[in-house]
Amino acid sequence: MSAVEPGSEQPVSVRAAMVLVAELAALGVREVVLSPGSRNAPLAYAVEAADRAGLLRLHVRVDERSAGFTALGMARGSGAPVVLVTTSGTAVANLHPAVLEADHAQVPLVVVSADRPAAMLDTGANQTTRQVGLFAESVRVAARLAADERSLDALPAVARRLVLAARGDLSRTPGPVHLNLELDDPLTPTAPLDALPAGHPLRTTSAAPASITLPADDGTVVLVGDATPAAGAAARRLAEEAGVPLLSEPSGNARSGPSAVAGYRLLLDGPLGRGITRVVCVGHPTLSRPVTRLLSRRDVELVVLSDGSRWVDPGHRASSVAQAVSIPAGDGSWLDRWRTADRELGARLADLLAAEPWPNGPALAAAVAGSLGAADIWLLGSSQSVRDADLAPVWGASAPQVHANRGLAGIDGTVSTAVGLSLGTGRGVTALVGDLTFLHDANGLLIGPDEPRADVRVVVANDRGGAIFATLEQGRPELAAPFERLFGTPHRVDLRALAAAHGVKHRPVRDQDELTDLLSRRITGLEVVEVALDRSGRRDLDARIRALAP
């Protein structure tokens, strides 16, 4: 490094951090989530300097797991890599849930973990463990580098490789990457960091997508699992141009328009479902067992759309994998049959739910869905909430952007993901979660007063336990004795007090009109909307809903 370059008088650990942060900013990184620590102090100072210079935006979170999901939400919302910076030891391990979700959901994250020098391994030194390889095969690239004089020249190339891999420019499979940076004392600047060295912008090109043309087939459906808004929009165009049914999970971002079928999962095991001969699969469909059975059928041709090196084929039945397909338009009779059945099923479902005591899970999800439009963002909890939303009516031309952490379908980090989505898009986010999902990430509400503000409305369906297990095998009457303790997991947490402890607004909802009024208001800051539900009849309700299927 030249003596005239900014920071040349600083300790080498600080200079290395300055070079790395400058390069990441030059490569297009605009958001960094930092969890405080001692070993990552050089990185903290460098990121703060970049924030002051307007090169990127810094977000500080004291809980690393919440930090991970905040970054995940920002990367989901923006589509651009977000950097996570942690200190050494267990701090790094707390990022693992978010890294796993980012891996399976193909979300670009750049994890930079600070570490002690390699010579301190296996010596019993404080906060020192084997961080290299901690995320194993969950990251696209895992690099290690000692912050010394020789590494200063290597850091720009390392940063480029990390960002390229995270974006999926080379593999076409975006996802998390990991740099473990060994930092030795001294860890603090000897003078204020007033400037960073110049970085090197990255220029890349993308290959044109490969496409195949499928022959006409009257039994074709387009099935969309968890997918990006762009992939969902492409799936919708494909279905509408071909005139075939569009079966989309809520987070498939294709649950709208004239081809969309709201009650598809209730129709798949009936005569219409049995008439399917070809599935064009987009995204990551894992939400319901009827879909899993469909993807495993031997009498169905499965064509998977993927622009990367990974695709979904849990039944090992895929006959083709392509980046794009075209399907000749049919006469529309196949789609008309699905539309008719869906319309009749929707009317029966609406009547059933109207006769139920309010609120109940499906009715609550439908109410939230109905309040949202094209300018809105909806995040769904990955357990019962997203399944309830899967029964809601489809939108017309104006549908919100919908997200859920369905890469691995865990409930952890959902509040933090919502905060990250808001920060990454600059828009308000409505989240619909169960009480256990909310409590699992209550630390997502812990945001310092000087941090960038997120606008998030968290609607909590509070049935004081785990409703989803009542609808599964564990909820069978003959297994009732240990159910509450093992699976229902009841609690007595006062959500109003919990929100107040974090300085967050809490709004209880007593009736449907009150909910409608709350949902119509502009989202400003963080707020918790609590809707109390009774889960005692949930298994019976689900059985009666399934019985509506023709």
Ordered list of secondary-structure elements with their pairings:
Blueprint: H1 12-26, E1 31-34, H2 41-52, E2 57-60, H3 64-78, E3 82-86, H4 90-93, H5 96-105, E4 109-115, E5 142-146, H6 151-167, E6 176-182, E7 211-213, E8 220-224, H7 229-242, E9 246-248, H8 264-267, H9 271-274, E10 278-282, H10 289-296, E11 301-305, E12 318-322, E13 324-326, H11 333-355, H12 361-370, E14 377-380, H13 384-389, E15 401-404, H14 414-425, E16 429-434, H15 435-440, E17 456-462, H16 483-488, H17 495-501, E18 505-509, H18 512-520, E19 526-532, H19 538-546
Parallel strand pairs: 1-2, 1-3, 3-4, 4-6, 5-6, 7-13, 8-9, 8-10, 10-11, 11-12, 14-15, 14-16, 16-17, 17-19, 18-19
Helix pairs in contact: 1-2, 1-6, 3-5, 3-14
What does the model show?
- Pfam families: TPP_enzyme_C, TPP_enzyme_N.
- Keywords: Magnesium, Manganese, Menaquinone biosynthesis, Metal-binding, Thiamine pyrophosphate, Transferase.
- Its EC number is 2.2.1.9.
- By secondary structure, this protein is an alpha/beta fold.
- It folds into three domains: 12-182, 3-Layer(aba) Sandwich (Rossmann fold), CATH 3.40.50.970; 211-341, Rossmann fold (3-Layer(aba) Sandwich); 357-546, 3-Layer(aba) Sandwich (Rossmann fold), CATH 3.40.50.
- The chain contains 19 helices and 19 strands.
- The strands form four sheets. A six-stranded parallel beta sheet has the order 2-1-3-4-6-5, with helices on both faces.
- Helix 3 (64-78) crosses helix 14 (414-425).
